[in-house]
Every structure is written in C-alpha cells, then in structure tokens.
Amino acid sequence: MQLDLIPQIKHAKGGNFFLLCGPCAIEGEEMALRIAEKVVGVTQKLRIPYVFKGSFKKANRSRVDSFTGIGDEKALRILRKVSDTFKVPTLTDIHEVSDAIMAAEYVDVLQIPAFLVRQTDLVVAAAKTGKVVNLKKGQFMSPESMKHAVQKVLDSGNEQVVITDRGTMFGYQDMIVDFRGIPTMKQFAPVVLDVTHSLQQPNQSSGVTGGRPQLIETIARAGIATGVDGIFMETHFDPANAKSDGANMLHLDHLEKLLTNLVALRNAVNGLQ
Hints:
Residues 8-265 form the DAHP synthetase I/KDSA domain. It is built from eight helices and eleven strands.
C-alpha cells in the first residue's frame, strides 16, 4: 500500500506511523464529529497520517438485541460528512458483498472483519472497488496464512492492501498478540496493530464483550518497537456508555498523551535503523 495515494491523507512522507482511529460504531452525527475533531487536532499537532474509522453497521454481535447501527445510509452519510468537514480519509468495515459497492461511495478504505477475512467473494468485492483494503487478521489464523488473503486482493488488480493484527485467540475468553507475526506479515503488506481489539475479552457469559483498556499503551508501545507501520484504535468520549465495544476502547481524553509517547518511541526506533 502507498500511504500517499489515500485521498486527503496528510503527513504521509514524514516517517511516522499512520493511525486508524475513531469510534467502534457510528452512533450519530454529533458524536462522530466530536471524536473526529479531537483526533484530527492531535494528529495534526503530532504530524501523524490519520484515517477516521467508524463502522456504519455492526453485523457480528453476540446477542440479537445488541446495537447494530442507526441505518446504513444514514451512518455512511455521517462518514462522508466527517471527511468533508475535516478533510481526512475515512474507513468502515463491510460484512456482505453488497456492502462493498455501497460503502465505497462514501469512504476511502474498506475493512474486512477478522471473522470474514477468508471469505473470498467479500475480499474480492472490496478489492474490485479500487479502494484501499484493510484485512483484519483472523483470530484463528497464523500470520503466515495472511499472505493468501493479501494475494486475493492483488489478484483482483488492487495493490492497495494492508494487514491489521488484532490478536489471536488461544483460549475461550482472551486475546494474545504474538509480536513475532509482525515481521512475518510485513513480508506481504504494510502491517497495522489493532491495540484495542487485541485487548478484548470475548465470549463473556453475559454476551457482552469485556476488555482490558488499561493495557492499551503497553500493547501500542510494543507494536511500535516491533516496527508496525500503523496503529488502529477505537476511542470514545464516554466508553462506559458507548453502544459497541466500550469495554476495550480508549477514553478520548487519554489520546494525546498516548500518541505523544508513541511518536517519541517511533522517533527512537527510526534512529536505530
């Protein structure tokens, strides 16, 4: 993937990591704009290339009564408004082949969820839109096996592909990041580390996913030290009342300090090379 080919991306040539960041789900216009304004301000100050992330719908919920979205077109229009207002690219995840063309009308990056990254028709549909394709590594997949998912995008005539590691499930209710996989996957495509979903604790008896957000900076620092190209994280100004994945999100108030520390660490790592 060539970072500078993403529409409206800034600071692409500065040698910094890039950031995919925003709420888990689009809950409404005001919340999306509020989060985007904060993240844009911080990333501009720190010269971090930034893509706003927000799911227009959530299809892989544990319970039938879980929040899934405010309406597809409504949420996608909010993503477009974020892009138009702040002049930043946007990302959303897709779950069905029909989502690809619809979402590509509104966003710059299409994300394939980890549970669906082996679904050939979905990956190919995303690739054929010509948008950047972000492939979440399946929790059940080895780093080496992600080369096949990348190849599906390349074989579809699209070289704009990136891999995001979001941890591996070694037990029933916890995720582990195996940092040996970062250099392995960098052989296939640029690699992002998802530092919030990697701290999920899924399959809780309540049907609501738990998390360990106090370890976000620990995982993020390790990712930067290991040489990831980008960082993915979800953030919210009120995680306790977020409608999706609040248990593992970073509070928006903590974002600037975390990113400041990561930029300093990235500069130190760059100096070692």
